[in-house]
Design goal:
Number of domains: 1
Shape: globular
Helix content: 40-55%
Number of strands: 5
Radius of gyration: 21 Å
Largest sheet: 5 strands, antiparallel
Number of helices: 5
Order of helices and strands: HHEHEEHHEE
Strand order of the largest sheet: 1-2-3-5-4
Structural class: alpha+beta
Distance between the termini: 52 Å
Length: 160
């Protein structure tokens, strides 16, 4: 009896440890589709269409996100307001190395902090402070800031 109980406890312990050791699998995402999901969310809630232009110029992105170009990426999708002074930016990236997620997150958080402390556009700075967020999922990192009243999901990567 004691022997059976002993083996049952060992079996349960092994099952628990095996379950804990498995990493949660990250699904593969298309960053352009994630961006479109954010726009769809706005449309479905009756908001006016966001006016943003795609940006792919690495030098321009580096200007707004210092250190950005030094991090290897598999995917980059960047949309910004056509005019400086608007709190409307969505940048989605998939970094090549999971160790770079933290660095990219810090770059995005720094962008939000700079936007929130901008004295040239104080009303926009409030939007940056209140509506700027960074989301992560596996090797994916997103920086999103939208005007007041627009919906920012808890995690943009769960929309797709």
């Amino acid at each position: 009896m004691k022997k059976n109980l002993f083996f049952a406890i060992i079996a349960i312990t092994l099952l628990v440890l095996t379950g804990c050791a498995k990493e949660k699998e990250t699904k593969i995402l298309n960053m352009e589709e994630v961006y479109q999901s954010v726009l769809t969310l706005q449309e479905e809630s009756g908001k006016e269409a966001l006016i943003m232009f795609p940006e792919s110029n690495e030098e321009y992105l580096e200007m707004f996100y210092p250190g950005f170009s030094s991090i290897p990426r598999t995917q980059t999708v960047a949309y910004m307001a056509p005019v400086t002074g608007f709190a409307t930016e969505i940048l989605l990236v998939e970094v090549t190395n999971k160790d770079d997620v933290k660095a990219m997150k810090e770059i995005f958080e720094s962008r939000i902090e700079r936007g929130a402390s901008d004295t040239t556009y104080p009303e926009t700075a409030i939007h940056w402070a209140n509506n700027g967020q960074v989301h992560t999922y596996g090797n994916y990192v997103c920086m999103i800031v939208l005007p007041e009243g627009y919906i920012i999901p808890e995690n943009v990567f769960e929309l797709e």
